[in-house]
Amino acid sequence: MTDATPSESTRPPGGTLRTGGPGTAPPGAPGGPAPAPVNAGAAPARTPDVTPPDSTVLRTGTFSWLLPRRSALAALLVVPLIAVLVALAVMASSTGMSLSETVSGLLGTGDPGTVMIVRDFRLPRIFVGLLVGAGLGIAGCLTQTLAGNRLATPDLVGVNDGATAAVVAAAAGSTTGMVGDWWLGPIGAVVAAAIVVLCAGGAGTAGYRILVAGIGVSTFIGAVGDLIMSRENDNTAGGVFLWAIGSLNGRDWGVGTPLALVLLVLVPFALAVGHRLQLLRFDDDVAASLGVDLRRLRAGALVLAVALAGTAVGVGGPIAFVALAAPILAQRLAGPTRVPVIGSALTGAALIAAADALGRVAAPVELPVGVVTSVLGGPFLLWVLLRPDRDTGKA
Questions:
Q1: Do 154 and 305 contact (CB within 8 A), yes or no?
Q2: Tens of pLDDT, residues 201-228
Q3: Which of these, 206, 198, 96, 66, lies nearest to 147 by C-alpha position?
Q4: How many CA atoms lie within 13 A of 320 on its CB side?
Q5: CA distance 139 to 153
Q6: Does 193 score more than 90 pLDDT?
């Protein structure tokens, strides 16, 4: 029997012998063909880009920061709007002061009375109003995100009423009609928030439980405040009533400076908490799997919201609807994937500046800023209730 040789039938077209048949050594084995290179000349695998489409990564050495482009653009648009509103608020007057007199008073070239009105009364009042609006806006943003409901604001969960009741109780028995010190507002807000948390079963419970408990506590505390005022004389009741509906009358640098310091300390913490609160848009199990301590996060957000709202109410009174409207408008500008802490602060400041200016020109007598926000906030609340959120579907 002779050795078989390749026949013509085993040769492919072109006369090249086929390999790999029976008895052929595998590639890479001794005597076999050399293995073919894998992905010869292919580019190395690239790491997938996980940067959100609306953000830009800014890097400095070992540090990096995710800049949300849409939120930043919205903030840049609101800042000049605030500047315009501040200018209008400086010029707005219910006493008939002309534009030229206002400018001369602002520059210090007018008569002493005009200079005093513009520099000593209007400017501090506008400055305090901007800070109050910023505090209420951030507090509303945190509570709405925490509860997952656009109606869960300090106005509706008892915080504002607790701060108001503390200031009103301090004014009880006064013969001058002056309200209590501004720092009583945060104390009353903390007490009211503690009662709400206890009634809701803890800060880590579902948002609807905090909302329902807050409405009940708010109603009770408001009734207590009304009972206290019903026992007071006309002078005290009249003075406190003007503040209790939200007013910036008489607000000066003496209360504006402490409020600015409080915001300077709390806003960075609010930014950090707001960044973590974005994870609450997922299910609790998903957020926990990402390393988030949900109970600690919710408790921290609630503490910041209470401190901000209580301080703002203690200074400017319970100005209605700002904490509700500012976060919703800021969310529309920033997009559904962000917790707009800075946007809510800027929008709240713009709302207060606009309401303060409008209150001084819309009627023969000056209207408190709380009255203006209540009149404008009623239709806005109906719009929120009747128009479902297209992004979350929540009321």
A1: yes
A2: 766 555 667 778 888 888 888 888 888 7
A3: 206
A4: 16
A5: 8
A6: no
